[in-house]
Design brief:
38% of the residues lie in helices and 22% in strands. The protein has eleven helices and 14 strands. Strand 11 (236-244) and strand 12 (250-258) form a beta hairpin.
Length: 338
C-alpha cells in the first residue's frame, strides 16, 4: 500500500560542466536542483508513494525555480517553507579514465535551509501527514540549529507512530578537526530514534568507535551490524559494498539485516554514467521493499537493482519506476524496448 514518505533536507543547485571538460576549460554550465532529500522524495514518488520534502527555500525567483523543478520530479512541496535568499550550490566536473570526478561546494552554510529559524516549521503538522521520514547524516553535519530541528522532527514522527529512517552518509570534511568525537553523540542520538538505518562497518568502527577482531570488510560487517542493531534497537539496517574494477566498471552488493538475519543481493557489475545519487536510489529501494512487505531477499535485490539503474542516468535523482527496477533484477542486458 502506498505510503506518505517525507525527507528532511537541503535543496542544492547542481552546476555541471558539460561533457568531460574542467571548470577552467568550459564557459557554460547546466543547472538542476538536487540533494539527498530531493532524491529520496522523488524516488519514492516514482515508486508510487506520496513523496514530500521538508525544507526551506528562498522567497525569490531562485526559490520559485527550485519549487517548479521539484514538482516536475513528482515531489509534493506543500511541506516546503519559504525564507531567506540563497540555495547551496555545487559544481560537478565529470571524471574520465584515471581522472576522478570532482565536486566543489560553495557556501552552503548560508543557504535558506541552513539558516532557517524554528518558527518556519510546524513539525507536529508534518508528523500528522506522513508515515515515514528520512534523514541524512550530511544534514546532521551542518550546524547546531539544523541538528536540533532534525532531532525534533524525528521525535515528533516517532511520537505519532511513524517510521524514522536515518542514512549515516558520513562526510569527514564536514565535521571539522575533531570530526569523529564531535559527530559521535549526534549520530548516537539519531540512531536511538531510528527504525531503519543505512550504514556499513566503517560507520560502526570510526563514528561509533566499536571494535572487531576481524580485518576483512565482509566479516567486520557481519560482526558489527548485529551489535549496532541490538544496542540502538534498530529493526532494519542496510548498505552496500562497492568495488571499482580495472576496466572502470563498478561492482556493487547490497545487504539488509533484519530479524536477526543478513540478506545479501546478487553482486551487480555495470558501467557508470553518473554515480552521484546512487546511494539514495538504494535507500529508496530498501524503503519501498520494507513498506510494501517484500521478502527481505527480494527487497535487497530490488534496492541493488535500483542503485545500478541510477548509475545509468544523468543527474542525482533516480528516475526508475518499479517495473523498470523489477526488470533490471532479472537481466543486465540492454536492448531497445519496443
Amino acid at each position: 500500500m502506498p505510503k506518505s514518505i517525507a525527507a528532511f533536507g537541503e535543496v542544492m543547485m547542481r552546476l555541471q560542466v558539460p561533457g568531460y571538460a574542467s571548470l577552467a576549460q568550459e564557459s557554460h554550465l547546466n543547472y538542476s536542483f538536487s540533494g539527498t532529500g530531493v532524491n529520496i522524495a522523488s524516488a519514492m514518488a516514482k515508486l508510487g508513494h506520496d513523496g514530500y520534502l521538508v525544507t526551506t527555500l528562498p522567497d525569490n525567483p531562485l526559490g520559485e525555480a527550485a519549487i517548479s523543478y521539484l514538482r516536475k520530479l513528482g515531489i509534493n512541496t506543500s511541506l516546503a517553507s519559504r525564507g531567506g535568499k540563497y540555495v547551496g550550490m555545487y559544481f560537478l566536473e565529470n571524471g574520465f579514465g584515471v581522472r576522478p570526478g570532482r565536486v566543489t561546494y560553495t557556501d552552503r552554510l548560508g543557504s535558506s535551509f541552513n539558516t532557517a529559524q524554528d518558527e518556519l516549521y510546524d513539525f507536529s503538522a508534518v508528523a500528522r501527514v506522513i508515515d515515514i521520514i528520512h534523514f541524512c547524516g550530511i544534514t546532521l553535519s551542518m550546524n547546531d540549529g539544523v541538528r536540533a530541528q532534525m532531532k525534533a522532527l524525528a521525535r515528533e514522527v516517532k511520537a505519532a507512530g511513524g517510521t524514522v529512517v536515518f542514512d549515516c552518509n558520513y562526510r569527514p570534511s564536514l565535521w571539522g578537526a575533531d570530526r569523529y568525537a564531535f559527530a559521535k553523540p549526534h549520530y548516537e542520538e539519531m540512531l536511538s530514534l531510528a527504525d531503519i538505518v543505512f550504514m556499513n562497518e566503517k560507520d560502526a568502527l570510526f563514528i561509533l568507535g566499536m571494535e572487531t577482531a576481524y580485518e576483512d570488510r565482509a566479516e567486520q560487517l557481519q560482526d558489527l551490524i548485529p551489535k549496532v542493531a541490538k544496542k540502538y534497537n534498530i529493526s532494519a539496517l542496510a548498505g552496500t559494498h562497492r568495488s571499482i574494477n580495472g576496466d572502470n566498471t563498478h561492482s556493487l552488493q547490497g545487504y539488509l539485516y533484519t530479524g536477526g538475519t543478513f540478506h545479501f543481493s546478487q553482486a551487480r557489475t555495470f558501467a557508470v554514467h553518473d554515480r552521484i545519487g546512487a546511494g539514495d536510489a538504494y535507500a529508496s529501494g530498501i524503503m519501498h521493499g520494507l513498506s510494501e512487505g517484500y521478502e527481505p531477499v527480494r527487497t535487497v535485490n530490488f534496492a541493488a537493482s535500483a542503485a545500478m539503474l541510477a548509475h545509468t542516468v544523468t543527474g542525482d535523482t533516480p528516475t526508475a519506476n518499479e517495473r523498470e527496477i523489477l526488470q533490471a533484477m532479472n537481466t543486465h542486458l540492454s536492448d531497445v524496448e519496443r
